[in-house]
Design brief:
single chain, S-adenosylmethionine decarboxylase, eight-stranded antiparallel beta sheet, 23% helix
């Protein structure tokens, strides 16, 4: 069974003198916004700073001054962005960032990054970049072009693991797996002490988790199937410091690290990334909006040959 785990991601910052996303916007609005992307809200949690919605495809986080939404599968996140702009007005938006990474089977997607940013550009003109090599792992980033300057303390991280170990895949695809089983396997209690957690186990495979504590958040999305395994972590916690634990759990054949405004990125890579992994691509730049963006792709060199994968010639298979 194939599922495209790669997320599309949008962050919208708003003028809190005009609007509070946390207090002034109803859950019905967020449900309609999510539906526009062909996803739906499954559940939600809240504290004094943030509301986190667990989606049928990934997550939505809402603070007073911003929202962060990620969707995976064959969703059209850009339609949710357009819904926000049309209903609340571009004048309330201080800044917008839209992001997509390379997919396993991009041909199965209803749109590409270029299609998406052309739509956004009709409302909010901006600039686009590619981080990483075209023929390998890469991430596309679009941001609105205006006088916005990012706060240096606005720091986020992404850890994206590909081709997890056979042991990890087998554990995460076993029948009747429970939330408690997956939390224990991912060491959630030690990674996220004192966090409010909302999680969901999908059938037949897959797992999503939202966690919040004060203004901190972390979201995890698991696509465990061996032929397309992918597990993502997105947070304003320092995922570089957590990388050794995540790598120990998942033992991926490759992974990406991406950060916005993280300090000492290269020094932390040297400190935290296990020596058996080789850096294949590394990009660092400061965007016009003030965000310092770092991207790094690591691979685990293979020392043995593998067997070819037989495909279903007559089946509905994106690999064909």
């Amino acid at each position: 069974m194939f599922f495209e785990g790669s997320e599309k991601k949008a962050e919208i910052l708003i003028d809190t003198k005009k609007l509070s996303l946390l207090d002034d916007i109803s859950d019905e609005f967020w449900s309609a916004l999510v539906n526009c992307s062909q996803a739906k809200i499954l559940s939600s949690i809240r504290n004094n700073y943030c509301k986190a919605f667990l989606l049928s495809e990934s997550s939505l986080f809402v603070w007073q001054d911003r929202l962060l939404i990620l969707t995976c599968g064959e969703t059209q996140l850009v339609k949710a962005v357009e819904f926000f702009i049309k209903n609340l007005g571009s004048e309330v938006i201080k800044h917008l960032t839209y992001q997509r990474k390379n997919e396993y089977f991009a041909n199965a997607q209803p749109s590409c990054f270029g299609d998406d940013i052309k739509l956004i550009h009709q409302y909010l003109p901006g600039k686009a970049y590619r981080f990483g090599e075209m023929d390998s792992h890469h991430n596309y980033v679009f941001h609105v072009e205006n006088d916005f300057v990012a706060d240096a303390d606005d720091i986020t991280y992404e850890f994206l693991a590909y081709q997890i170990s056979e042991k990890a895949s087998q554990h995460l695809t076993q029948p009747n797996l429970t939330k408690a089983d997956i939390r224990e396997f991912l060491r959630i209690d030690s990674l996220l002490p004192n966090f409010i957690i909302d999680d969901f186990v999908f059938s037949p495979y897959g797992y999503s988790l939202n966690a919040i504590h004060d203004q901190h958040y972390l979201t995890i999305h698991v696509t465990p199937q061996m032929d397309s395994s992918y597990i993502s972590f997105e947070s304003n916690l320092d995922l570089l410091a957590l990388a050794p634990t995540l790598i120990d759990i998942l033992a991926p054949k490759s992974f990406d690290l991406m950060s916005f405004n993280a300090q000492n990125f290269n020094a932390k890579l040297a400190q935290y990334i296990p020596k058996q992994y080789v850096s294949k691509s590394r990009v660092s730049t400061q965007l016009d909006n003030g965000y310092i963006v770092n991207f790094a792709n690591y691979i685990l060199p293979q020392t043995t040959f593998i067997e070819p994968i037989e495909l279903d010639v007559l089946g509905d298979n994106h690999a064909l």
